[in-house]
Design goal:
P-loop_NTPase; single chain; Rossmann fold; about 400 residues; 11 helices; 15 strands; 7-stranded mixed beta sheet; alpha/beta
Length: about 400
């Protein structure tokens, strides 16, 4: 069981018990896979759910049950060849660690989509079940930088897998090259042999619904009155260094507490340190350490760093301090948040955006707001926000 102060990063085997909703959807996915194997048909099972609805916990339990049945000669899953794919290096570390703690799982059955696709193309291997966590991160166009040379990762996986189970949240799409619309998903999946279910219950944020509603509205460019005081510690900060001190205090007492920032500060993968500068605070961005077996927020040294959306997506924290950079401002006349995409440092996120066939600026704003949503939905026990833009900070403090 997971201890009370642990999030996904602190998980140990066995994983925590599933809720009734998770158990029901897990069983539906299993029965769906069984029926497709018996009928010798292809099938796609989509599990939707917003941040904090327990998608990755469900994936772990589902795959563990499939792999246990794989070793049972009397099971329909006996001898099947199955994989979990995730297009996120930190999440892959998490799954491989879970595999190392489970008697039923092997690390080799967890992989990145590109590695899987490139290997399967060479071997022309047919697989039975592929579960894709964070499927909203699948590439929807060529990406030579990541060694993907086909047109769409989901389409490639569907060529070689009999059953695909997708874990999907369209509010967590962060790049134009993995931009998914409902129309695109439906076009790829088709209407036959497809089942879609949604997780609704929130497990991460230990707060009243007014906090969740405030975050949702904020990520839609609206600023509501602050939620009423409650057990969940929600604060707007006027001092970035003070916010960092609070986070360090929580790290000492309950752990899993980190600073995060919108991608509004320069960063390069060249081995040098780059810094997030917000008010009276200057702290380095997270250092790239792909060889580390532990995820970023698990490592003790990262309390001295600021995490990005790419570092923390998919994971829980106990307390999160969020720095809103210059790309997020406030329009006093319209009384709404202003998104300045030209100030967003992750301009690579917009590569290929002209080919989406939609309003380019609106699409850029949507990607930035999706990234904001990921950051603001990490915390279980407390969330602190500091805005670099003085007008936005003033407005938030007034509320």
């Amino acid at each position: 069981m997971v201890r009370e102060n642990e999030g996904k990063l602190g998980i140990t085997w066995p994983v925590r018990e599933l809720s009734c909703e998770q158990e029901e959807i897990k069983n539906e996915a299993l029965n769906f896979a069984k029926s497709k194997i018996e009928e010798r048909q292809k099938g796609i099972f989509v599990i939707g759910g917003q941040a904090g609805t327990g998608k990755s916990v469900l994936v772990t339990a589902l795959f563990n049950e499939i792999q246990a049945a794989c070793k049972d000669k009397s099971s329909i899953f006996s001898g099947t060849n199955n994989y979990v794919l995730v297009n996120h290096p930190e999440m892959l570390k998490f799954y491989k660690r879970v595999a190392g703690e489970s008697p039923m799982l092997l690390k080799k059955n967890f992989d990145r989509p590109t590695s899987f696709i490139n290997r399967i193309h060479k071997s022309v291997e047919q697989v039975d079940i592929v579960i894709i966590d964070e499927a909203h991160l699948l590439l929807t166009k060529k990406d030579a930088y990541n060694h993907f040379y086909q047109e769409n990762q989901l389409q490639e996986i569907l060529k070689y897998a009999r059953i695909v189970i997708l874990i999907f949240d369209n509010k967590q799409v962060l790049k134009a090259k993995s931009y998914w619309s409902k129309q695109k998903l439906v076009a790829i999946l088709g209407g036959d042999n497809v089942k879609i279910r949604h997780l609704q219950e929130q497990f991460r944020i230990e707060a009243n619904t007014d906090v969740q509603n405030w975050i949702s509205d904020f990520c839609s460019e609206k600023i509501d009155q602050l939620p009423a005081k409650q057990k969940f510690d929600f604060r707007i900060m006027n001092d970035a260094k003070r916010m960092y001190e609070l986070i360090k205090t929580h790290e000492k007492t309950v752990g899993l507490s980190r600073l995060l920032a919108t991608y509004d500060f320069p960063y390069r993968l060249d081995g040098n340190d780059y810094f997030v500068k917000a008010g009276n605070l200057s702290l380095r961005w997270d250092r790239s350490k792909p060889q580390e077996s532990l995820a970023w927020a698990e490592r003790a040294d990262t309390i001295d760093e600021v995490g990005s959306v790419y570092t923390i997506q998919g994971f829980d924290l106990n307390y999160a301090g969020i720095i809103l950079g210059p790309s997020l401002g406030y329009d006093e006349q319209l009384d709404k948040i202003v998104v300045r995409s030209e100030l967003y440092e992750d301009q690579a996120a917009f590569n290929g955006i002209k080919h989406l066939g939609t309003n380019i600026e609106a699409a850029k704003e949507r990607l930035i707001l999706n990234a904001l949503n990921v950051l603001l939905t990490r915390a279980r026990k407390g969330l602190y926000i500091y805005a670099v833009d003085s007008k936005l900070r003033k407005k938030l403090l007034q509320n």
